[in-house]
Amino acid sequence: MLTRGPAVAGAAAIVLSGLLGVGALAAPPPQPSAGETLYRHGLLSSAQPVQATREAGATLNGADAACVNCHRRSGLGSIEGQIAIPPIAGPYLFIARGKSLEQQGVPFVDTERINHEAYTDESLARAIREGIGANGKPLNYLMPRYQIDDATMAALIDYLKEMTVKPAPGVSSAELHFATIITPDADPVKRRGMLDVMNQYFIDKNNAAARTKAPTLYSSHAMMFRVERRWQLHVWELTGAPASWEAQLRQHLAAEPVFAVISGLGGSNWAPVQKFCEAESLPCLFPNVEAPGGQDSDFYSVYFSRGVLLEAELIARELADAPERPRRIVQVFRAGDVGEAAARALQSVRAGSGPAIVNRVLKAHGSSGELIAALRDVGSADALVLWLRAADLSALEQLPPATARVWISGEMGGLERAPLPQKWRATTRMAYPVDLPGQRVVRVDYALSWFRLRKVAVVAQQVQADTYLACGLVSETLNHMVDAFVRDYLIERVEMALDHRVLTGYYPRLTLAPGQRFASKGGYIVRFSDPQGTKVTPLGDWITP
Amino acid sequence: MCTKGTVTAVLVCSAALLLAAAAAATVARSTVSYQTPAVTLVREDGKSVSLVRELDDGRPVLLNFIFTTCSSICPLTSRTLEEFQSKLGPRAATLHIMSISIDPEQDTPQRLIEYARKFHAGPEWQYYTGTVAASLAAQRAFDVYRGEKMSHTPVTLMRAAPGHPWLRIEGFVTPDELVDDYQKLLASP
To answer: CATH number of the domain that B62 lies in?
Structure first.
């Protein structure tokens, strides 16, 4: 069979790296098998796009016809409207009927077809090619009929057989292990705030589970018991240079296998963490990161917002719509901070259109004198974009009021608490990538009351509210998953569950779908309403750039 | 109530969502009147337009609701419209096809252009996005809102001219059936 080689090689590589000691160089990722290539990308062994037709003659090919679109990466299917796409991971296809799923160690999934005949390799190939099920009846209209050569078919069937539904590492019959990741450049106050929330959430979760005295049973079709496993949190604190983080993370994962990463806190560079999560197929759910990066094709990292990168687009849009074109766009940021990525993002959106962009880079921990010098020649014909933290915004007090139009980052400055001097308030607008204070108050109060009752000190409100939200979302999603502890499935179920969520914290709404990795898509441009205080006024509607 | 063709009620077991292997797509047709809401949408060319005016430009209209990251239902319904459009040939030019996003924050005009290109949308086929509120108002008005985007169901709406009732087609209709429906709709008084 075509697929065995690479898959086995991959498994061997993992074992080897364990023997050699983690921290050693990562094994190169195994080449995807021919089965996987067809399943995920719709390509045959010949590298040609697969052709498929539907009953009524509609044709589709290549990536549009790939199995993954409907049956998903986990192979556990999906639900869209009134249509349940069944699981096609091996055990669900080849399972012997007559015994219950749990007797055969196969977890319950709510898309499963009950009472279908077990497939054989031959009947499965017929189903895929001719649309005839194991019971001899035609398959659903949505299922295309594929033209697949024998070798690729064998590879695909092998791939389906290899799809595991066994609990992922970090899951035992009594415990669910999670990690949270903190980079060394993370803000220490936010770090404390986040960990306080997580520790308390895990205590609460385990107390609640203990109170319900749920029997440690597994699911069945007749009666579904939810297993209440104890949640265990591992805090992975990284040290040293970013180049060493992936090796450190591999070491942590080997020593403390976890099902998923919840929340987390980054500084200016989260890319090595995202890369690690992709390489290890480890869900990394809603970390507190101000400038998330990664590739479009990344699957395992999911964020609430694009943070300052979204702000850059909000500001770019304002600049594009402005009736008067500025002479220059002057961006100011500190070296090594997320403002650098934001400035780059704004520059790329504005590339080739309009005025010149001038970037002024301040030293990482430089003085306010440097900031003042950087702004000296900025005049009324310019647009000024300040990617700066609270301390730098306070220092603007030393300058006369800006004559230029000014934008600041809400994410970096502290939203409505940004210490913007009174004399700068008339000309300054703020990118505001969350819901307005008056509109989010009820949703955020829910988290704040929870903190108050549990004596969790509020030291970094948004990070803590987002962390609480992340924990709640994972908990809710796991309820839908019953006992199918498959990592890919966790991501897929988060995508599905998010739309239902009513309490969305700082964000007006959260939605995801296959290929979407940022749940909140927009923001406001606001200005301070008064010379002092924290009241802000939106200058228009919620914008999704 | 105008029912024709293979009309079967869709039976849904909400607990287990059992959808047994069905030989053919299950399609239900009805004739319904809708009140178009006075909302502004954003067309894929970036222009803000009135939904009422887009619908009432005098041409027959085919209306459906999609989102571009939808992986199962929309690719099929969009492919069906693509083939419907090509089967109509030159006659398609006198029709207005409108696809409104039910995930408008994700579906920017740029993403809609890419999606339209993928399905070879002709000049008569436009895509619309806008605010969440505007999209919801449109979905509610045409009774396609199902709580959230992942709960959507395949619905195709057709109307011969402004002021006429709508033909509502629920389920996976084939391109040939759609051509047939369209011709009958235009022929009916």
So the answer is: 3.40.30.10
